[in-house]
Amino acid sequence: MNRDTLIIIPAYNEEKSIAQVIRSILRYTPDADIVVVNDGSTDNTAQVAGQAGAIVLNLPFNVGIGGGMQTGYLYAHEKGYRYAVQIDADGQHDPADLPRLLQHAKNGEADMILGSRYIAKTSYKSSAMRRVGMIFFSKLVFLLTGQEVKDTTSGYRVVNKNLIDLFSRSYPTDYPEVEVIVFLKRHGYSLLEVPTEMHQRQAGVSSITPFKSVYYIVKVALALIMNVLRHRKARELS
Fold first, then answer.
1. Which has the closest alpha carbon to 204: 11, 10, 9?
2. Using the 8-state DSSP alphabet, how is residue 148 labeled?
3. Strand-strand pairing, 5-11 and 33-39
4. Helix, strand, coil: what percent of the chain each, to 5?
5. Rounded to an integer, what distance in angstroms lies between the CA atom of residue 101 and that of residue 114?
6. What torsion, rounded to 10 degrees, do the Cα atoms 153, 139, 132, 93 define?
7. What total of structural domains would you count in the chain?
8. Fewer beta carbons below 10 Å: N end or C end of the chain?
9. Roughly what angle, to the nearest 10 degrees, separates helices 161-169 and 177-186?
10. pLDDT at 119
11. C-alpha to C-alpha distances, 128 to 23, 118, 124, nearest whole angstrom
12. Distance in angstroms (rounded) separating the CA atoms of residues 118 and 120
């Protein structure tokens, strides 16, 4: 294996968009390998991804975004990649930003480079509920880590080998994006947020409903606070 970068695409029933996403990534980063973690899809996501040129890892049933991403990091760790990229399968992330995100990582500017919709003006328009969630999580992450992060739920991320090793051993399971930020900061790693474009999804329907948004905010907030309290208690007892 001579290539140093692995693009990880967790995918669940994304047969209508996955081929275009893979072709766009190859256009801007032809020297990277692409792995699609087929998270128990019931459509032809795996077949379409393989035909488009990706390595496909098939999970026997749907485990969610956390399990899918950790599968990708395990693969990256076992194959010795130095950089791993998380990118969505629905076409919302613009691969044109990818070379710039990777360059920040290869310059050693941080252990994680986070593509952000909210630190520069983009065409992305979020719902009112999503904006409330973003503000809430941004303030909570600052309270818990001391670092201001505006787009805490962005799934457009580049990590270096240090974090590939960490995430292959431990990774939050359910709605992990915000928890991962607190998790890596607690282990002493760094994060740099840079502006990226965000498009509307190319096909399919988002699984995030208003009810699920409220559930997400409450669940993730409780998980973050409990993890921090448990970590502090463990340090006091050690």
1. 11
2. -
3. parallel
4. 45, 15, 35
5. 8
6. -20
7. 1
8. C
9. 110
10. 85
11. 33, 14, 13
12. 6
Residue 188: CB atoms within 10 Å: 8
20 contact partners, CB below 8 Å, separation of at least 6: 91, 202
CA atoms of 91 and 160, how far apart (whole Å): 23
Q: Which residue has the tokens 């520069």?
A: 120
pLDDT of residue 228: 73
Name which of 238, 158, 151, 220 is nearest 183 in CA terms. Answer: 220
User: What's the pLDDT band for 100 if we cut at 50, 70, 90?
Assistant: very high
What is the domain range of residue 158? Answer: 5-236
Mean pLDDT across 136-155: 92
Closest of 72, 70, 36, 74 to residue 55, by C-alpha: 36
The residues pairing with 34 across neighbouring beta strands, listed in sequence order, are 7
CATH number for the domain including 104?
A: 3.90.550.10
Assigned token pair, 130 = 């999503």
Q: How many other CB atoms are there within 10 angstroms of residue 7's CB atom? A: 28
Q: Output DSSP code: residue 154.
A: -
Radius of gyration (Cα) for the chain, nearest Å? 17
pLDDT at 205 over 80: no
Predicted confidence (pLDDT) per residue in 158-188, tens digit: 999 999 999 999 998 877 899 999 999 989 9
Q: How far apart are CA 102 and CA 65, in angstroms?
A: 22
Contact 49, 38 (CB under 8 A): yes
Round to the nearest angstrom and report the end-to-end CA distance of the chain. 42
- Strands (E) in 76-190, as ranges, are 83-86, 112-116, 157-160
Which amino acid does the sequence have at 45?
Answer: T
Residue entry with tokens 């328009």: 125
